[in-house]
UniProtKB/TrEMBL annotation:
Belongs to the tetrahydrofolate dehydrogenase/cyclohydrolase family. It comes from the Bacteria. NCBIfam families: PRK14186.1. It comes from Saccharopolyspora mangrovi. This is Bifunctional protein FolD. The keyword Hydrolase applies. Catalyzes the oxidation of 5,10-methylenetetrahydrofolate to 5,10-methenyltetrahydrofolate and then the hydrolysis of 5,10-methenyltetrahydrofolate to 10-formyltetrahydrofolate. InterPro entries: Aminoacid_DH-like_N_sf (IPR046346), NAD(P)-bd_dom_sf (IPR036291), THF_DH/CycHdrlase (IPR000672), THF_DH/CycHdrlase_cat_dom (IPR020630), THF_DH/CycHdrlase_CS (IPR020867), THF_DH/CycHdrlase_NAD-bd_dom (IPR020631). Pathway: One-carbon metabolism; tetrahydrofolate interconversion.
Length: 284
């Protein structure tokens, strides 16, 4: 029997409904500052959807579009400005940045309480300690998707393929927090297929088109495809969906899987950041 398709579009729409409701309860609409440097076409598409959904949820769109040749000091000043602006609840610096800019340095400038991407050192530390904080959107979206699909994580064998700061590492930590037994695989893993076949829940986040095939999947496993690649044949993920669907119990499609959940979690983080800001104001 072919795998159940996990519908990320529907899950994201549901989550956005809840977020709109939460936004309406806040004393003031949160503001999301998306910062786009240059004109990378894929980045432009993602940022456009983030902005549209932000407005649809009742939040303020405080977008900044900056030229590709902006200097590091100038971009740092923009981040400082957004940190200081009380109308700005969340800041998202769209990656990748042009080559002459040091992303780590600029991310480090973002106020951790406005870090809706969950990428600052403080956010990473809070996640590692299990302390309250803003979690990276894609892995948080994957957990929400698994919960909605009724996938049990407690005691499950979870295998994450990929160890990026944006997805793989925080994904492993969130799964661990949910009491899964977590294995992290990467480009130097000796026998990837064997390691992956342990998985009850397999997360493909290595960034290589269709690298996960049916040989990597235990029959009945849940397969989450975080990859997104634009090829001549159209969009595809890190999973060879057609063949893996013959083996897996459930699988996320690309598009319509993890991507929409990433954006919904960004909105959710912006609401969380608004609550942090309220608490800070109440304290003074
Ligand atoms: N600071 C930062 N934070 C990010 O979260 C971030 C980033 N930089 N840089 C790039 C990646 C990629 N990313 C996606 C978000 C939504 C979809 C998405 O909605 N995808 C739709 C399809 C959209 C399409 O046609 O491409 C889907 O999968 O159904 C995909 C990819 C966020 N990223």
């Amino acid at each position: 029997m072919p795998a159940t398709i996990i519908d990320g579009k529907a899950a994201a729409a549901e989550l956005r409904q809840r977020i709109s409701h939460d936004v309406a309860q806040l004393p003031e609409p949160p503001g999301l500052a998306t910062v786009l440097v240059g004109d990378d076409p894929a980045s432009a598409v993602y940022v456009a959807s983030k902005r549209r959904q932000c407005v649809q949820a009742g939040m303020r769109d405080l977008h900044r579009h900056l030229p590709a040749d902006i200097g590091a000091a100038e971009l740092a000043a923009v981040v400082d400005d957004l940190n200081a602006d009380p109308a700005v609840t969340g800041i998202l610096l769209q990656l990748p940045l042009p080559r002459h800019l040091d992303a780590a340095n600029l991310i480090a400038r973002i106020d951790p309480d406005k870090d809706v991407d969950g990428l600052t050192i403080a956010s990473v530390g809070r996640l590692a300690l299990g302390a309250p904080g803003l979690r990276p959107c894609t892995p948080a979206g994957v957990i929400a998707l698994l919960d909605r699909a009724g996938v049990r994580l407690e005691g499950a064998e979870a295998v994450v393929v990929g160890r990026s700061h944006l997805v793989g590492k925080p994904m492993a930590q969130l799964l661990l927090e949910r009491n899964a037994t977590v294995t992290v695989c990467h480009s130097r893993t000796r026998d990837l297929a064997t390691a992956c076949r342990r998985a009850d829940v397999l997360i493909a986040a290595a960034g290589l088109p269709r690298m996960i095939g049916p040989d990597h999947v235990k029959p009945g496993a849940t397969v989450i495809d975080v990859g997104i690649h634009r090829t001549d044949a159209g969009l595809c993920g890190d999973v060879d969906t057609a063949t893996v669907a013959e083996v897996a119990g459930a699988i996320t499609p690309v598009p319509g899987g993890v991507g929409p959940m990433t954006i919904a979690m960004l909105l959710s983080n912006t609401v969380t950041a608004a609550r942090f800001a309220d608490r800070k104001n109440a304290a003074v």
